[in-house]
Amino acid sequence: MAKAVAASDEVAYTAGLDRFYAVIMSLADNATLHATHHSLLGPVRRLRRIAMTQPGRMKASHKQSVRIRDAIAKGDPKGPALMREQLANAAKAATAVLRAGQ
Predict the structure, then answer these.
(1) CA nearest 52: which of 33, 38, 65?
(2) Which of 20, 29, 62, 63 is most exposed, with minimal Cβ within 10 Å?
(3) Is 54 helix (H, G, I), strand (E, B) or coil?
(4) What is d(CA 94, CA 91) in angstroms, rounded to the nearest whole number?
C-alpha cells in the first residue's frame, strides 16, 4: 500500500486496501461481518477509487490503516475505535465525491 501511495496509484492502493480488510475480516472470524463486508465490496470499491483521487485522501487512508494494523498487532483495545474512525473518514470522503458529481 505504501508503494501505491508513493506512486499515486489509486487502483493499486484500493486493491491493497481490499486485501488489508480481507485479512481483518479473517482475523475477526465473524461470518455475518464477513458476508456484510463482501456484499458491499463492489460499490465501496468504486467509491474508494474515486475518493482516493482527492488530494491527500490516499495518504490519510494509509496512515490510518497503519495505525489499525499496529493496534491489532499489539492487541491494543483502541483497534475498534480506529476502525470506526476509518469508516467515518471514508464515509465523509465518499459523500464529498458524490456531492461533487451533482
Answers:
(1) 65
(2) 29
(3) coil
(4) 5
For residue 74 the three cell numbers come to 499489539
In this structure, what C-alpha cell is assigned to residue 85?
A: 474512525
- Non-local (6+) Cβ contacts of 10 within 8 A are 4, 49, 52, 53, 58
Average per-residue pLDDT for the chain: 88
**Is pLDDT larger for residue 25 or for residue 74?**
74
Buried/exposed code over 20-55 (b: 16+ C-beta within 10 A; e: otherwise):
bbeebbeeeeeeeeeeebeeeeeebeebbbbbbeee
Q: How many residues does the chain have?
A: 102
Confidence of residue 55 (pLDDT cuts 50, 70, 90): confident
> Is the sign of the CA dihedral 19, 64, 54, 97 positive or negative?
positive
Q: What is the pLDDT of residue 43?
A: 80
Q: What 3-state class would DSSP assign to 71?
A: helix
